[in-house]
Amino acid sequence: MDPAAKKKALRLLSYGLCVATSRDDTGLAAGTINWISQSSFTPPLVMVAIKADSGLHRAVAASRIFAVHIVGKSQKELAAAFFRGAQPAANTLNGYAVETGLTGAPLLLAPPAWFECRVVNEVRGGDHTIFVGEVVDAGVRSEEEALTLRDTGFAYGG
Amino acid sequence: MDPAAKKKALRLLSYGLCVATSRDDTGLAAGTINWISQSSFTPPLVMVAIKADSGLHRAVAASRIFAVHIVGKSQKELAAAFFRGAQPAANTLNGYAVETGLTGAPLLLAPPAWFECRVVNEVRGGDHTIFVGEVVDAGVRSEEEALTLRDTGFAYGG
């Protein structure tokens, strides 16, 4: 296999930008992700690949819950703010206001939409773990469109 | 959970359009998909959710191989041609020229890029199965950008 062709072909997969959050005994966890897709209508499932050596991974693996926020077209700085995990303070996460969701995951108030999941399956192997989550709650806060990875000029894949 | 909010939030996930192909004892299989993402850099893995009651699913489940083609910005009609599975003829699939890849999967010549996978894991449950594939070959045929689901006005999710 030609590594350059592999990299180029995989980078042609299209992605949006999301911020995922969770919580375990040590506190809140969060991270910007783009390796996510729905994987079933009934029940509503999503599959998300989370970096194995991250605080977000540790929290999701322990708590079996997570929330996903759609980053809006105008919110590139929100996505960038979560590149390096979670910095919690009183009622904020990385400077952004949060409330607590049904599952206990922190929900950011700024993104246009979010959903919360309970992990129903996981696949280890590789440098990320695939968590399959059943969507148990969701909300829409504004009509803003989603930011795509291509919009930002960022790359994660290949 | 509010079903309308769930639908709207899930539809804000961003997708590209791909054509997946495979082959089993009964012949070639194919379908347009958008529920796909990379899931590891090392080894290079992708996760793809394929409709459980489809010919493509039957072929991938049996043969453990599949190919994924990135649909180009100008190739909406190519994506639409594979909505209803595979119609093979001599050296063509749904009217598009093919060659045979490393894994035995048919490779379409028209799309800007493709990669071939061997299934290393699967997760059943829900109306789609998640197949985790290790990328074993890849190629780039043109410099065309990828078509997104949003570009087409199609929806698959929610």
Number of strand segments of chain A? 11
Highest-level CATH class of chain A:
Mainly Beta
- Main sheet specs of chain A: 7 strands, antiparallel
CATH topology of chain A: Pnp Oxidase, Chain A
- Regions with little confidence, pLDDT below 50 for 5+ residues of chain A: none
| Helical content class of chain A | 10-25%
> What amount of the residues of chain A lies in strands?
35-45%
Protein described:
2 copies of one chain form a homodimer. Chain A is α+β, with helices and mostly antiparallel strands and 158 residues long. Chain A has a single domain (15-152), classed as Pnp Oxidase, Chain A. Chain A has 4 helices and 11 strands; from the N terminus they run H-E-E-E-E-H-E-H-E-E-E-E-E-E-H. The first copy, chain A, has helices at residues 3-10, 55-63, 76-81, 149-152; strands at residues 18-24, 27-33, 36-40, 45-51, 65-70, 88-89, 92-93, 96-100, 106-108, 113-123, 128-140. In chain A, the strands form 2 sheets. In chain A, strands 2-1-5-10-11-4-3 form a 7-stranded antiparallel β-sheet. At the A-B interface, helix 1, strand 3, strand 4, strand 10 and strand 11 of A face helix 1, strand 3, strand 4, strand 10 and strand 11 of B.
